[in-house]
Every structure is written in C-alpha cells, then in structure tokens.
Amino acid sequence: MIGCMRTARIPALIGAAAILLAGCGTAVERGADGFRHEHGTEARHAAAAIGRLTAAVGALGANPSAAQLESVALEQHRARRQLLAAVSWTQLENGEEEGVSQAEREIHEAAGALLAAMTEIRRYTQSRSPAALAAYRRQFAAGREYWNQGISQLWHIAKVSGAPTI
To answer: Does domain 28-157 fall into CATH 1.20.120?
Structure first.
C-alpha cells in the first residue's frame, strides 16, 4: 500500500515540475516589468536629478562663484539621494534570466560610477580642484553609459518605451 502511494505521487510531482518549468519562459518579463512597476518612479527621479546635477556642473564657469558651487553641492546631494533610492533593490530574479541579470549588473555598475562622480564633484565644490572636476567627468561618463544600457535593457525586456536614461 505504501508503495502505491509513492507511485501515485510521481505523476503529481512531474505535473508540478512541468508547470514550474513552463512558467520560466515568462520569468524575464515578470522580472523586468516588476522592476519597472516597483522602481520605475525612483529610476525616473534619479535620472532627472542626475540631469539637473549635470546641468549645474555644465553651467560652472572657469571661476565659479560660491553661490554656484553651493548650487552644485545641493544638486549633488539630491542626485545622490535619488540614485540610492533607485538602486536599493534586491536581485530582480534568480539569475537564470540573462537579460534581466545583465541589466541589473549594469545598473549597479552605473550606481558605483555615478556615486564616485558625485563624490568628486562634491570635492570640487569644496576645493575647486581641477583634478576632482576631471575625475567627476570620467566617472560620470562611465556611469551614464552603464545606466543607460541597463535601464534601456530593462524597459526593452518589459516591452515598454520611455526608459529614464540620463
């Protein structure tokens, strides 16, 4: 009797496994779409804040005033806060979905580079060091590239347009 119960469970287990495996085909879309629904607003806010910081830095002249430097420092603070909110999520999926995992890695690389850039621009506002401004520009360029690739890929996988690029 016990052997019959074990044999009866096998088809049920096979059926359950088939249902789980069939669902794997849509896991990528759920991961990207889930991210977009849960974190899309933060990503848009971060992209906008980083855009404002970029504009403020771009408006600096060769000899910026204290007020201009303070404005850049304020935009840097806001952009940092928004970026941290946008990238504070756990892994989107279990790593099997290559597109989602790759996008997530790019966004985290972007966050690291952008945060380093923000540290450098903050240092520039305090010291007016040309080296800090040059380091900001290098880090920002790398961060923007990673961000735009990762965010665009997530939005593409989710089959929606309007990714919040920088």
So the answer is: yes
CA–CA separation, 104 vs 13, rounded Å? 33
CB 60 within 8 A of CB 76: no
Q: Is this structure's pTM higher than 0.70?
A: yes
Spatial distance between the Cα atoms of 72 and 59, rounded to a whole number of angstroms: 9
**3-class SS at 95?**
coil
* Measured distance CA(91)–CA(89) in Å, rounded: 7
Asked whether the beta carbons of 164 and 44 are under 8 A apart, the reply is: yes
Q: Compute CA distances 113 → 8, 19, 142, whole Å.
A: 56, 41, 6
Token digits of residue 94: 């279990």
89-126 pLDDT per residue, tens? 755 554 446 788 888 889 999 999 999 999 999 999 99
What residues have CB less than 8 Å from 162, skipping those under 6 apart?
155
Quick: pLDDT tens for 127-162: 999 999 999 999 999 999 999 999 999 999 988 999
